[in-house]
Amino acid sequence: MNGFGGFAVRRAAGAVVTLLALSVIIYVVFYVTPGDVAQITCGPRCSPAQVQQVSAQLHLDDPLYARYWHFLQGIVAGQDYSTGTSVQHCSAPCLGLSYQSDQQVLTLILAKLPVTASLALGSMVLWLIIGVGTGVLSVWRRGRLTERLLTTVTLAGMSTPVFVIGLVLMIVVCGQLELLPFPQYVPFTDDPEQWAWNLLLPWLSLALVESATYARITRAAMLETLTEDHVRTFRAYGVGERAVIGRHALRGALAPLIAVNANNIGVLFGGAVLTETLFGLPGVGREMVEAVKVVDLPVVVGMVLVTGFFVVLANAVADVLYALADRRVVLT
Amino acid sequence: MSEAVLAVETPGADAPGVSGARQFWRRLRTRRAALVAASAVALLVLVALTAPLLTALEGQDPTTYHPSLVDSARGGVPVGPLGGISADHWLGVEPQTGRDLFARLVYGARVSLGVALAATVVQLVLGVAVGLAAGLGNRWIDQLLTRVADIFVAMPLMIVALALLAVVPTSFPRPVLVALVVGLVSGWATLAKLVRAQTLTLKEADHVAAARLSGWGTVRIARRELLPGLAAPVITFAAILVPTNISVEAALSFLGVGVRPPTPSWGQMLTSANVWYQAAPQYLLLPAGALFVTVLALTVLGDGVRTALDPRAASRLRVGTGRKGGRS
Amino acid sequence: MSDTVKDTAGSLVEVDGLTVDFGGLRAVDGLGFRLERGAALALVGESGSGKSTVASALLGLHRGTGAEVGGTIEVAGLDVGRASEDALRRLRGGTAAMVFQDPLSSLDPYYAVGDQIAEVYRVHTRASRRAARARAVEVLDRVGIPDAVRRSRSRPHEFSGGMRQRALIAMALACEPELLIADEPTTALDVTVQAQILDLLHTLREETGMGLLLVTHDVGVAAESVDEVLVMRHGRQVEHGSVTEVLGAPREPYTRELLGAVPRVDAPRAGRAEPGAETGAGSDAGSGAGCDAGSASGSDGPGEPVLEAVGLHRVFGRGKKAFAAVDGVSITVRRGETLGVVGESGSGKTTLGRMLVGLLEPTAGEVRHDGHARVGVDPSVQMVFQDPVSSLNPRRSVGESIADPLRARGERDETRIRARVRELLERVGLEAAHHDRYPHEFSGGQRQRVGIARALAADPRVIVCDEPVSALDVTTQAQVVALLAELQRELGLALVFIAHDLAVVRQVSDRVAVMRRGRIVEQGPADQVYDHPQDPYTGQLLAAVPALDPAVAARRRSARREPATI
How close B222 gets to chain A, by Cα (Å)? Predict the structure, then answer.
């Protein structure tokens, strides 16, 4: 398609601007909010002198702009960090060091990413099948009992937080029926079968909750399309209901589905916080919760940025897919 | 006049002289599901408002520990059958602490609804203000605000809320903080984009042009011609926001960064519920059920509000095959 | 089930005692007609007459929608009312194919045009994909789409309006139907494109011998295309006969009213003062020259310019996408006269109108009131809008809307405001009691009257009317046009009448400006422009207007065929 390169460049530039703005907002908010980071990092039993030392070491006394500049430098050129006794080099896209463990934030996040990605992608497959299937079925059987039933179930699904469904599933399936073990993450590279077996429940919990949204979107978009004039044309030309729904109506639902799915996946890559916490999966989300509890600011900021990156990336991919799916859309 | 006949045939023409608000209530009343949901919501609000009264009736309060009611030898399991249900403790007591479950549940409703409503107000004010400014302002203001809104739409809500809640000192009143964070981080940007789009559409409407030709100034035109047209989409969106906010609050409290103990919250109660589900199943089922019913009722009510505000869309969605009326 | 085709020798369509009810509302009431093989019949009527409902009923499209259909319909021997689903599907698109009004929304935006035609073809023939695609290209070529192989891979939005309608007709042709049902096939198209499509339909009929059922509100379109006309009103038949009979010598009063209301492009404006002669007093109806307080009483010399546009330009978009909607337009509107502005869609006429009233700032050039440059809106120049729905705030009573200019001027006395609004309502032919009603309680024509009353409330000297009657039925249209003329005479108003309909413009205008692609190609006294067009484009436009006389229509058609100008 013509002008695709231009689109990619514009889109990348837009993404960079978005991420920069995001980082500024996060930085300003986090570093301006009251709260004694040095005290928290050092621990409750630290003496004022020790707190002072920590504060200096973490550059907490520098002015805000200096620290932000420092942070940007780290991302672009890398940074050397003194950890009291030794100096650690953190190379190019450097998001800083964890206050707690002195580990590089990016390394920390990347180490947890496979878990989160396994969870997100696996449940995506499930929620697309369940959600879109439910939506199509309820349109196919519209005006009948099946539709009312499906709409009710969908509504219930939308009203249930993932940690409630997950909790109930875990108690029933693992606790009472003992069909599955309580989930424990096994890397795919170690044992694919155990990987899937252990992730089954988290996948299902997340997918059940998400699929309600997809069912609703699918149904609404398809019903909307069914009222359009071109559907009337095909009916007036003897095209059967199956083709009208499967070919023409479903096609109309594609665009909103792509958009929502992209955003969802982007956010999930930044950590399926609730699901990971509930099932004790060592993913990005749980790392985030841990970092938050101890106010490990570099980790928190890095996490937000990485998530923002995934969201922006996913949305850009969605835009391309969207434009390919609907040529009326001009890429700008 | 031969045109008069046509006026009668125009679909969607309502009885003469009925104002928008009254039509809205009339349509809402005819939907049974919405009515049931509205009753449930009303009951929940009542419970939340009269929480002190209800607990006084039971003779308990949500914060007092009852160490004698839990078996510390068995890790804090409630004493007695069914998780410690008794005449004094209608729904039993919390494991480990022995706090009254009924009182905590009822007070939890206060937190849930209160935080969700407050967050919704924040989202509405911010969303409408930014959306209007973008829609009415010049190209630069519009682009700037739209870009900002885009950033907030893309912002991973859970992660940012977690981060924000982590850094603010605990001395800050927690429920207020949770409401603020939820309100500032989520929802408003989507609403702002909606309001902006609607404003731009309305701005192009001929009746706005006519008002300009009459000689009215911008402020008056915005107030008389634009704002009333925004009411329906904004109310519809608010109706979706409230149940979402309840879920978010529960999730944050579940993660332990939302409302802090001893303030009771449904999400927080679920944090440790999976440990106790065998000894005191109601400790899991009650908050989960309350959460489910509340969100469901609000969602159904929101659906009802939406269809009542846009009956054409509703009838289209209901019938599905509804064809646009032919030209003749 | 009597699915079998009984007698191939019988009529193509036989409708008897047809009734269609939509939830208690009777849309079609006891209609009966026959259409012989190869013949052409037009159902003519205004909105609400039930004509489109009849068209849908022929294909059994009401089945399953909750509408109640009574009477019998037979299409090519098939009893549509009792046919099985399968037989009905074979009928639809196979035996009888339908062409719809809006060619853009009638095709699926997501698929290539050729694929859509192939899909329909495969439903009826079980042909292979490849064969179906080949057939699609063949019929696209047949309806005059150039480079059909390549174009068949384009999506509908990549086609122009006329091309889309051709594509729809191609889809109809795919299975070689015996009957073509065309529901307002040219209503969404510009007049020159309309002529091409009507010519195409005519040629196809000549070549394939299929029957045509044309549904239209436009008597001229019917005169161009069919042998027989059936005039409908309120779901009933008013008059039925050959096109020459019905249009030439109508028997029924309603048909006469309908025909009388149709503006003629070839007849000069009736009963109007010559430009340059004394304005104010009209020749009919003894209305005095009651000039409104708004106009200066001393200087009522004719021909004095009140509104001028000097070298107006308006560019939309920037950079590569910049597009000049109006590209150097200068016009003068004189006191008491009507300036007509005609043009097809995209000619920039609406943009010009918006700049004249000050709703839109010109990129270059200026608008002058009484010779003085003026920026922004001014109550003395008002506008009547096209869309009777969006031009009134649905949440305010019409009285409130009309009172706007009064209040904006600083009038605070509620009784005086009310009295003036009532006076205005009555002036435009509504009732004073309508004051507190809301727009949705009015019909399109009534709403347009409200819009006129609101414009009058500002005591304007000029009213710019942007397609004021294009959304209205022809009889309503005539009433509104008459009202405007009457007001102009009484109040000494200057009017700018913007429209795409050449006949309406001729009916109302003293002088006419013809626009094309942002420029004025020709302007001058109406009769001169219409009777002796100087610019070839004006000639093209005039030649494309459907004639009410079938004989003239046939002559024009052959004339159009010879020079392949368009």
Answer: 31
Tell me if ipTM is over 0.90.
no
Radius of gyration of chain C (CA): 26
Give me B47's structure tokens.
Answer: 């419970």
Which residues on adjacent β-strands are paired with residue C324? C315
Nearest-by-Cβ selection for A308 from B156, B169, B255: B156
Provide the pLDDT for residue A312: 80
Q: What is the pTM of this model?
A: 0.81
Test A236 with C88 for CB contact under 8 angstroms.
no
C387–B16 CB contact, under 8 Å: no
Q: What is the pLDDT of residues C408-434, one digit of tens each?
A: 888 888 899 999 999 999 999 999 888
Q: What is the C-alpha separation between A282 and A183, in angstroms, rounded? A: 11
Cβ contacts of C91 on chain A, cutoff 8 Å: 238
By CB neighbour count within 10 A (0-12 exposed, 13-18 middle, 19+ buried), where does C3 fall? middle
Looking at CA atoms only, how far is residue C3 from chain B in angstroms?
Answer: 26
How far is the C-alpha of A272 from the C-alpha of A286, rounded, in Å? 8
Residue with tokens 């028997």: C251
- In terms of Cα–Cα distance, which of B132, B239, B117 is closest to B192? B132
Inter-CA distances, B15 with B20, B44, C252, C275, Å: 11, 35, 35, 48
Distance CA B178, CA C299 (A): 72
User: Cα B181 to the chain's mean position, in Å?
Assistant: 15
Longest dimension (CA), chain B: 91
User: Quick check: C122 contacting A, CB < 8 Å?
Assistant: no
Query: DSSP letters of C469-530?
Result: TTTS-HHHHHHHHHHHHHHHHHHT-EEEEEES-HHHHHHH-SEEEEEETTEEEEEEEHHHHH
Inter-residue contact A303 to A22 (CB < 8 Å): no
AA letter at B245: N
- Cα gap C403→C115, rounded to integer Å: 55
- Interface size between B and C, measured as CB pairs under 8 A: 127
The model's pLDDT over B155-197, given as tens digits with 9 standing for 90+, comes to 777 777 877 777 676 677 888 888 888 888 888 988 998 899 8
C-alpha angle A71-A76-A79 in degrees, rounded to nearest 5: 60
Whether residue B6 contacts residue C47, with contact meaning beta carbons closer than 8 Å, is answered with: yes
Please, are residues B216 and B208 in contact by the beta-carbon 8 Å criterion? no
Contact B268, B261 (CB under 8 A): yes
Which CA distances in Å does C216 have to C234, C265, C473, C545? 15, 19, 12, 15
Cβ neighbours of C215 in B, within 8 Å: 328
Q: What distance in Å separates the CA atoms of residue C291 and residue C243, rounded to the nearest whole number? A: 46
Name residues of chain A where pLDDT drops below 70: 1-4, 30-38, 40-44, 58, 81-86, 92, 325-332
Give the torsion sign (CA, B25, B30, B36, B37): negative
- DSSP H/E element including B160: helix B157-167
User: In chain A, which ranges are E strands?
Assistant: 79-82, 87-90
- Residue C126: CB atoms within 10 Å: 9
Residue by residue, what is the 3-state secondary structure of C217-255? CCHHHHHHHCCEEEEEECCEEEEEEEHHHHHHCCCCHHH
Question: Are B156 and A270 an interchain contact pair (Cβ–Cβ within 8 Å)?
Answer: yes
Residue numbers in C near B229 (CB within 8 A): 395
Contact B169 A301 (CB under 8 A): no
A92 three-class SS: coil
Question: Chains meeting A at 3+ CB pairs closer than 8 A?
Answer: B, C
Could you give the C-alpha distances from B256 to A289, B268, B286, in angstroms and in order? 9, 7, 19
A48 by Cβ neighbours in 10 Å (0-12 / 13-18 / 19+) ranks as exposed
Whether B292 and A165 have beta carbons less than 8 Å apart is answered as no
